[in-house]
């Protein structure tokens, strides 16, 4: 199994920026970021394959950027122009089985981190 450790969460004002990091203990086929706000379902934010292909939720396109450092199994989520509605616990997820799965569905990912809190105030 792979171990995922997130970091970089915090509190910012609306319009601010944060960068989240996810360190994986070994190789994964793809990694993604999800978020869950209180009382809401977990939703996919962005994902990236090993070849650099990315996918984003409509709500974050143009504001968030997912990237990776393959040498260190680290993925990043750069979040700009943050809004209060971005407030949530953010989770890193990894696909360790591979295959043709490519979406922001939770079921396409096999391992999860503990989460890091992002709070955006107006």
Q: Can you characterise this structure?
A:
- The chain is mainly beta and 122 residues long.
- The chain is 0% helix and 49% strand.
- A hairpin with a 4-residue loop joins β5 and β6.
- It is globular and about 40 Å long.
Which consecutive residue ranges, at least 5 long each, have pLDDT under 50? none
What fraction strand? over 45%
Number of DSSP strand runs: 11
Which class best fits the helix and strand makeup? mainly beta
Largest sheet: 7 strands, mixed
Q: Can you lay out the helices and strands and say which pair or pack?
A:
Layout: E1 4-7, E2 10-13, E3 18-24, E4 30-36, E5 43-49, E6 54-56, E7 64-69, E8 74-79, E9 88-95, E10 111-112, E11 116-121
Parallel strand pairs: 2-11
Antiparallel strand pairs: 1-3, 3-8, 4-5, 4-9, 5-6, 7-8, 9-10, 9-11
Concise account of the structure shown:
With 122 residues, the chain is mostly beta strands. Helices cover 0% and strands 49% of the residues.
Keywords summarizing the entry:
four-stranded antiparallel β-sheet, mainly beta, 49% strand, 11 strands, seven-stranded mixed β-sheet, 122 residues
């Amino acid at each position: 199994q792979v171990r995922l450790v997130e970091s970089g969460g915090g509190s910012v004002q609306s319009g601010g920026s944060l960068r989240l990091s996810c360190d994986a203990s070994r190789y994964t086929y793809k990694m993604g970021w999800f978020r869950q706000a209180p009382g809401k379902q977990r939703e996919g934010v962005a994902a990236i394959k090993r070849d650099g292909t990315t996918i984003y939720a409509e709500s974050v396109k143009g504001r968030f950027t997912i990237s990776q450092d393959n040498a260190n199994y680290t993925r990043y989520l750069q979040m700009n122009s943050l809004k209060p509605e971005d407030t949530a616990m953010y989770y890193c997820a990894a696909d360790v089985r591979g295959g043709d799965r490519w979406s922001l569905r939770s079921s396409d990912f096999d391992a999860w981190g503990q989460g890091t809190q992002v709070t955006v105030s107006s």
